[in-house]
């Protein structure tokens, strides 16, 4: 066992701040890294020490593996935590960290490499008797796809996917045979650009599918425990924007089946640390299919923490130090419903990035609300990185109460000025009757786009000025009041 007294956090913004909060609880000293435009970022102020790592482009800063490890050694760190994004699922980086004599706060590098390749991951899932979506691995030509569709009697639509990576990149839906040549080239070039690997696979497209992911926690001694599931169906451009736990889509019997399937797979691949198994549920047949393993901390881990009372980042550190899991499966009893929304610095109508200075910031407060912020009032939101600036979570005794608390957080509690955020769109989603009834799929935002946009109301500083002007006008017209 190796005690972690000091850790370098190889990340920025929301994930870096989230990890630092747990480090304070565990009395672990933190070293932040920052690029030139991030010199005044929130994670820089929060860390015990901060080191300039390079210029704005990620390859010069947050993806510069050798430089990050050099800083960790110079600062006498015991470990590196990658957060999510950037190098979190980079097996080469994990190996370099371990070779440098540092503790890698995450799963074994060989498991990251194995699960990072969707084709190999799918084969392992099949070997572990985990259901997978009907598909064709290692696609080269349009003819390959058409032959597979004919032989396996698969109809359009289909989904072309990059074998490497995730985050919705290199994924193209195809509805007709005529679209195939262009779609294949598009997926290939996106995959090459995002992951440096243009290997593709193709799968049957599940209409109205629902994304269910199971949070798994495993130590180095073979103990694997699931912390139940999350629903991550609401997405735009194949990226999640709202998650909740437990899932409103599945029965208790299906919940048990899906969770134990995830545990079986993680045991098969020799996983340790926290990680997530993603499934796609076909609501017509109630069948679920393996999608991928996320070999890192998930953005939406907070909803699982809210329903179980556990700190997943703390567990990551304990497992990395060599401690056994402090609980058994029977000890896990979720007793609340939680929802998380991602506050991205984007135009709620077009999803175009919005960067600049946050001139005003009010963070939601009150019962049942948890906020993970990566910014402060006066902070700059640079154009070079992910647009996530804050996670807002709500919890209640049941789903309707969690929705009510989230409504309060977004409509009354949150105020961001100087940049645009997707908060108004999120508010219109949680107020939509179909969302409230639990009737939604991965295409919910596409299908209700115009309706959701018509509900979007953006407040500005002008609204405040008008409110004050109206108040002054009333006093002027009505004369002195009793309370004055």
UniProtKB/TrEMBL annotation:
Pfam families: Biotin_carb_C, Biotin_carb_N, CPSase_L_D2. It comes from the Bacteria. InterPro entries: ATP-grasp (IPR011761), BC-like_N (IPR005481), Biotin_carboxylase_complex (IPR050856), Biotin_carboxylation_dom (IPR011764), Biotin_COase_C (IPR005482), CPAse_ATP-bd (IPR005479), PreATP-grasp_dom_sf (IPR016185), Rudment_hybrid_motif (IPR011054). Residues 122-321 form the ATP-grasp domain. Keywords: ATP-binding, Biotin, Ligase, Nucleotide-binding. The keyword S-adenosyl-L-methionine does not apply. The keyword Oxidoreductase does not apply. GO terms for molecular function: ATP binding; ligase activity; metal ion binding. Residues 3-450 form the Biotin carboxylation domain. This is Carbamoyl-phosphate synthase subunit L.
């Amino acid at each position: 066992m190796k005690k972690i007294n000091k850790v370098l956090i190889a990340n920025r913004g929301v994930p870096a701040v989230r990890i630092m909060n747990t480090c304070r609880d565990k009395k672990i000293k933190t070293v932040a890294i920052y690029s030139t435009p991030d010199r005044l970022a929130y994670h820089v102020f929060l860390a015990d020490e901060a080191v300039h790592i390079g210029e704005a482009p990620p390859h010069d800063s947050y993806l510069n593996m050798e430089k990050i490890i050099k800083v960790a050694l110079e600062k006498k760190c015991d470990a590196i935590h990658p957060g999510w994004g950037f190098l979190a699922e980079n097996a080469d980086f994990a190996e370099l960290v371990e070779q440098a004599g540092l503790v890698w706060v995450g799963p074994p590098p060989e498991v990251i490499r194995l699960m990072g390749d969707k084709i190999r991951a799918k084969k392992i899932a099949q070997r572990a008797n985990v259901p997978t979506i009907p598909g064709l691995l290692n696609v080269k030509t349009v003819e390959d796809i058409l032959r597979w569709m004919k032989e396996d009697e698969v109809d359009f639509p289909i989904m072309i996917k990059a074998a490497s990576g995730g985050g919705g990149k290199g994924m193209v839906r195809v509805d007709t045979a005529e679209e195939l040549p262009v779609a294949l080239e598009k997926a290939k070039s996106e995959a090459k650009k995002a992951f440096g690997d243009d290997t593709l696979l193709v799968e049957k497209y599940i209409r109205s599918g629902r994304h269910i992911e199971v949070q798994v926690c495993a130590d180095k001694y073979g103990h694997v425990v699931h912390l139940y599931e999350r629903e991550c169906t609401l997405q735009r451009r194949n990226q999640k924007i709202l998650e909740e736990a437990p899932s409103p889509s599945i029965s208790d019997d299906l919940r048990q089946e899906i969770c134990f399937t995830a545990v079986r797979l993680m045991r098969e691949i020799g996983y340790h640390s926290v990680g997530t198994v993603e499934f796609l549920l076909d609501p017509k047949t109630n069948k679920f299919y393996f999608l991928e393993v996320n070999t890192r901390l998930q953005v939406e881990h907070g909803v699982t923490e809210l329903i179980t009372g556990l700190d997943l980042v703390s567990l990551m550190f304990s497992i990395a130090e060599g401690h056994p899991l402090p609980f058994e499966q029977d000890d896990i009893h979720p007793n609340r419903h939680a929802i998380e929304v991602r506050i991205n610095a984007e135009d709620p109508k077009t999803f175009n990035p919005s960067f600049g200075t946050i001139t005003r910031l009010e963070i939601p407060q009150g019962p049942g609300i948890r906020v993970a912020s990566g910014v402060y009032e006066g902070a700059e939101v640079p154009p070079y990185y992910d647009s996530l600036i804050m996670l807002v979570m709500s919890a209640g005794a049941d789903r309707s109460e969690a929705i009510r608390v989230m409504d309060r957080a977004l409509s009354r509690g949150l105020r961001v000025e100087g940049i645009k955020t997707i908060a108004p769109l999120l508010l219109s989603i949680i107020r939509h009757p179909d969302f409230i009834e639990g009737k939604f799929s991965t295409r919910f935002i596409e299908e209700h786009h115009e309706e959701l946009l018509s509900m979007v109301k953006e407040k500005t500083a002008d609204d405040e000025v008008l409110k004050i002007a109206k108040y002054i006008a009333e006093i002027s017209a009505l004369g002195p009041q009793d309370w004055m």
